[in-house]
Amino acid sequence: MKLIGSLTSPYVRKTRIVLAEKHIGYNFELEAPWDSDSHVPDYNPLGKVPILIMDDGTSLFDSRVIVEYLDNMNPVSRLIPESNRRRIMVKRWEALADGICDAAAAMFLERKRPEPSQSTEWISRQQTKVTRGLQAAAHDLSDKKWCDGNIYTLADIALGCALGYLAFRFSEIEWRNTYPNLADLSERLEKQAPFIETAPRG
Predict the structure, then answer these.
(1) Domain GST N-terminal: where (predicted)?
(2) Which one, 27, 37, 74, 198, has least CB within 10 Å?
């Protein structure tokens, strides 16, 4: 299998961590979807990463689709619970974490535009989404060790990648002081080998 992605995308990082946790071998091909000569649209008509090219040449895109496929490839160390209620709650965590990333990425891209063309209203709306997302995550995590309680799951990976992206792109957002339980979770995750090996850079 081949994974196409960048070193800065939190969605690519989530996929790479799941691959590591499931002990699935793959080739990693670096592609920046914004480059004019990018081959990303050849595999994903939406022009986004990550993209997983399966052994038969079929491409999978959207990190949520890819990680579910990967988790089902190997029944050992399931990251998405099988029971319906727990499964839905873990996927809910993933949706929340990805939503934080969506809003943060939208802010980042808007700030890259020439300053006179930037929409302060748009940036503010995305900032509000990030703030509310962090508030919800901190509330739902409460005093639990992991998002799903005492078991490490995809929920923790997704939230850890979202927090890592904020730390990478938005050092001015002081979520660590505001939400110490999120800071504790992030610190535990960032000490694990899959997180260390996929730390965003670029």
Answers:
(1) 1-78
(2) 37
Residues 67 and 128 in one domain: no
Instruction: Domain of residue 67: give its range.
Output: 2-73
Phi, psi (deg, nearest 5) at residue 151: -120, 130
Residue pLDDT, tens place only, 189-199: 999 999 999 99
Digit-coded pLDDT (tens) for 16-50:
999 999 999 999 999 988 787 888 999 999 999 99
Hey, is 179 helix, strand or coil? coil
Q: In this structure, is residue 197 part of a structural domain?
A: no
Same domain, 65 and 31: yes
Question: Is residue 170 helix, strand or coil?
Answer: coil
Q: How far apart are CA 14 and CA 21, in angstroms?
A: 11
Residue 102's closest CA among 68, 127, 137?
A: 127
What distance in Å separates the CA atoms of residue 159 and residue 164, rounded to the nearest whole number? 8
Whole-model pTM: value is 0.97
